[in-house]
TrEMBL record:
GO BP of this protein: iron-sulfur cluster assembly
Organism of derivation: Streptomyces beijiangensis
PANTHER family (alphabetical): PROTEIN ABCI7, CHLOROPLASTIC
Pfam families tied to this protein: SUFBD_core
SUF system FeS cluster assembly SufBD core domain segment(s): 140-364
Family classification: Belongs to the iron-sulfur cluster assembly SufBD family.
Name of the molecule in the record: Fe-S cluster assembly protein SufD
Amino acid sequence: MAEAQNIPAGSTTAGSIAVAAESTVATRMSAPPSFDVADFPVPHGREEEWRFTPLDRLRGLHDGTAVATGEGVRVEVTAPDGVTVETVGRDDARIGRAGTPADRVAAQAYTSFEKASVVSVPKEAVLTEPIRIAVHGIGGVAYGHQVIELGAYAEAVVVIDHTGDAVLAANVDYLLGDGAKLTVVSVQDWDDKAVHVAQHNALVGRDATFKSIVVTFGGDLVRLHPRVTYAGPGGDAELFGLYFTDKGQHQEHRLLVDHNAPNCKSNVAYKGALQGQDAHAVWIGDVLIQAAAEGTDSYELNRNLVLTDGARVDSVPNLEIETGEIAGAGHASATGRFDDSQLFYLQSRGIPADEARRLVVRGFFAELVQQIGLPDVEERLLAKIDAELEASV
């Protein structure tokens, strides 16, 4: 399995199944973040942040031609007692506080949504049941905005489940008060023709803990942009992800962890499996450690398992450090083909080939699935992995 770790800036390694490269975070965007869509030029595919994305499959989300049509998606929130669920307008002070749109689609979503949903957990509340948000596409184009807010020292688990068919652009904001603990599981289990582009913004309070688990299976094109910043020292962010990219699918995950406060931590680990002709996965991992962020401890990892010929991975880890006073920082990217020796080992012990293949892939994803901590969600995702593998036999 080819691996790139701590590559000097400007290095490039290319192959038939993967590309790994370095560049500074500052040069990756064609325009600075803005809430105004007019501040972003229409992308043409040559821009650094768009060069991997097939623009013709965005269905007009990138150039302003995608007009909201009717309901588009239905959103249902199931929350334990004590949690407040509101529908608010754009003038609500919590809208956009976690982060600013970083590209034209995110800005288009911000300027196009009609009402935002805000889910608030009061300070010091410790939820024993998860908050579940079901986003179901019913066709057409939709724009959305979701805010999850935790008061100081509150603890909660949120599951956001995307299903059905839609062309959806959305922003999701996570606001964590001091000492709060939030775990978010975002599942993209769309129908085959769906398009989903979203920016996830997390503002992590002083000594707060944020854990994100992003799971992507379905859709024709899914492009997600998780971003983390810190509102004070001592914050801890863990960003986990798993994706299974099938024939013809484009799945893209672009992450930014902006260490802008001292003594904060971040750990990123994304794993993907690919199979089928023209299956394309993209992972971009940007970590910026600003001059003020002394004492930072950061690491990011991306691993990909290519199950068949005809699939492609682009994996680009980036690390920019502006201070030498850090606890640690590093990154790694690895892509490899399915290991036939593992299959041989299992088959030599009497395990049928199909079962052996399933066990290898399950083992590859196991440590990330276990991060979810919700048995019903974990079992569903493992069943989905099995179904994907069966479809390729």
